[in-house]
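Lay summary. Proteins are chains of building blocks that fold into shapes, and those shapes determine what they do. In this project we predict the shape from the chain. Here is one chain we studied, written as its sequence of building blocks.
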Amino acid sequence: MLAGLRYIWHNKLVLGAMSLDLFAVLLGGAVALLPVYAREILKVGAVGLGFMRSAPGLGALLMSVIVAHRPLRRKAGMAMFWCVFAFGLFTIVFGLSRNPFLSIAMLLLLGAADTVSVIVRSTMIQLSTPDQMRGRVSAVNMVFIGASNEVGQFESGVTAQWFGAVPAVVLGGVGTIAIVCAWAWIFRSLRTLDRLDTIKTVST
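And here is the predicted shape, written in a compact code that computers can read:
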């Protein structure tokens, strides 16, 4: 695991992609507060909560089918940044919405945007990592994904307790957008990444 962490630290392309996803999910954890929205804000009850819980997954499924038939050809790095930016934007709109249909639509789009960033990040990590490091880097990536999801839900619960559910979701979306802007400036190699099939493995 330490070898995987050392490799990721020296490979700025992988470091930028993994940390972008880590902080975006950490801050944009609106899904954890869906029961509060269903009961107290949108007042749609258990049935509405079921629709809201399934919307991100449905969006992810539809986007997966689209990308399978129309894969990303160019500007993969910017596509990932724009999709994470959209993830934050859709989170903000969901947080402010009082219309159940708009809220479900935002959750659907949120899941779709997240899927594109996941596809780009996963492909990039696999292609840029040499065979002898791929297992360790993938292990670190899975730990990051699991930790960001769990800690993100904890963060959403804490900020909701401090500020309320709506400000917690909106602040999380704003934080996600801020992370995208900062990472686009810090990780230039990730921003300028063009074709995924031209990525070369990086040895350290």
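What the prediction tells us: Residues 96 and 133 are 44 Å apart (CA to CA).
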